[in-house]
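Notes continue from the previous slide.

Worked example: a multi-chain complex. Inputs as given:
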Amino acid sequence: MAKFPRDTFRDSLSVSLTVGAYGVAFGAASIAAHFSILQTCLFSLLTFTGASQFAAVGVVGAGGAALSAIAAATLLSTRNALYGMQMSPLLKVRGLKKIAAAHVTIDESTGVALAQTPRGTDAMRTGFWLTGLGVFIFWNIFTLLGALGAKALGNPASWGLDAAVPAAYLGLLWPRLQTNFLRVVAIASMIFALLVTPWLAAGMPIIMSVLVATSFGWRES
Amino acid sequence: MMWTVLLGTSVFCFAIKLLGHYIPEVWLSHPRLQRINALVPISLLSALIVAQGVVVKTHIVIDHRLAGIAVALAALFAKMPFPVVVVSAAVTSAVIFHLH
């Protein structure tokens, strides 16, 4: 990192700050699902993969069992394994550094690293670490702020927090719906969840929606 | 219950991240696995919107939350940033909640 690539730094910082806003939403969602402030902050420190954190507190908020919440979060995090697989030959680290690298292997760090490809492997490595650590810092600060804010507000429904949570999921989903095929998958998953809701235990429709993803992904579209 | 979810989620999610750094690329490069893996977040997030937006336990309940989600959808169509989407949904839902 002797020569500090300014463009890489700018990319990393802007991504890290933007993601902070989502941290506020997570903090609030977690409090709305009746997790304590301490538990909410530990989620962001220890789990540190946004969509999975949202899923875990989402299933609990929907009245689901602990196992359903863990399963939904774990399923959502499987993409991180694919990221790690791509990042590991680039980073070439061992021991504690490998543990740290694994912990900050998320959408944003991998995304920024891959976006630096034209600037060379050093820039990719710098992008990975700066973004991973930057998101880690801001995500945790903003989680605490969101949790404190939601706690101060009180009853989730009276401040619209119960609608803010699904709206946040919609905000996370939206940028992923790049093609008509992906939009069809999203709508099919919603219809599926609606149809099975009366027949399954709370939280289970969320896990079972993976069947929709599996059936759409089975054959080449 | 809460601690179980917190610790279970943290352990499994970290294990998956670490696993990725240790397994050879060929293992997860099967096209079918990659296709499904790309769709899983979409299905789960879609189901989460339903579960949190129009469901109470195992019943479908249409209430103030759906109005909030509709406003969020409109905000997304209007290319509003994430905080605007969430806050506009919250305000709409809260107003309707208090009108009842």
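Summary box: Chain A has two domains: 6-161, 177-221. Chain A touches chain B through 102 residues (CB under 8 Å).
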